[in-house]
Amino acid sequence: MQQWSIKFDNKENDERGIIKVRFAPEFWGEFIEFDVELNPIPIDDGKGKDVTVNWQFFNGFNPKS
Fold first, then answer.
1. Of the candidates 13, 29, 33, 52, which lies 20 to 30 Å from 64 by C-alpha distance?
2. What is the model's pTM?
């Protein structure tokens, strides 16, 4: 299994996150797994929040290289 971790830390507005990408062709074939961890979302304003993660792969993406 191969895993890549991408860390995001913006100290100006206290936004933090970790994205973990896993690729294990011997177990999952061509399946790639993503885990996204975010710092707590403030809820003290009483408003609901939606969090989305958008992915874009570029032509020629090859997880084996």
1. 52
2. 0.55
Residue with tokens 């830390």: 9
Task: Please say if the pLDDT value at position 20 is more than 80.
Answer: yes
Query: 28-41 b/e with 16+ CB inside 10 Å = b?
Result: eeeeeeeeeeeeee
Q: Which two tokens stand for residue 45?
A: 């304003």
pLDDT at 41: 79
Helices and strands of the chain, counted as H and E runs: 1, 3
In degrees, to the nearest 5, what angle opens at C-alpha 21 toward C-alphas 17 and 27? 150
Tokens encoding 7: 């860390």
